[in-house]
Amino acid sequence: MSRILDQTILLLVISFSASMQSTKVLSKWKKCGDPECEKAMSRVQATMDYLGPDCRYLNFKAGEEIMVYSKLSRENENLWTGSKGKDFGYFPRDAVKVEEVLIGEEVEVLTKETDFLCLHEDKYTFE
């Protein structure tokens, strides 16, 4: 009985830590094409297949086109956010090449907690 309880507690700890990781703030700052981060910054093409670690990340195949809306800055400059069709999420900047720049100047703004939540079917998923 004690062994089953130990295994159950271990599974709960693993589940909780995975949940906390998927809502973790990835950066306090981001760069955008406008103060509201609504304007597309650039159009990029995937140079490799990418499968993200959780639901906040954008998965894609080499050759697919992605519209970039923001770039994390300061403590985590490797992640950009963008969309491919209806899908939206983070991806590493070294997995794409810039095809077209759509803005003249980047604006740095604070991130929001909602920037790091999963969005499914027009609802935020709080984990």
From TrEMBL:
Tree of life domain: Eukaryota
Entry keyword annotation includes Signal: yes
Extent of the signal sequence: 1-19
Bilayer topology: Single-pass membrane protein
One annotated Gene Ontology cellular component of this protein: endoplasmic reticulum exit site
Keyword Signal: yes
Swiss-Prot/TrEMBL keywords: Coiled coil, Endoplasmic reticulum, Glycoprotein, SH3 domain, Signal
Any coiled-coil regions, as ranges: none
Residue stretches making up the SH3 domain: 39-101
GO biological process, one term: endoplasmic reticulum to Golgi vesicle-mediated transport
Localization: Endoplasmic reticulum membrane
Gene3D superfamilies: SH3 Domains
Predominant location category: endoplasmic reticulum
SUPFAM superfamilies according to UniProt: SH3-domain (SSF50044)
This protein's name: MIA2 protein
Recorded name of the encoding gene: Mia2
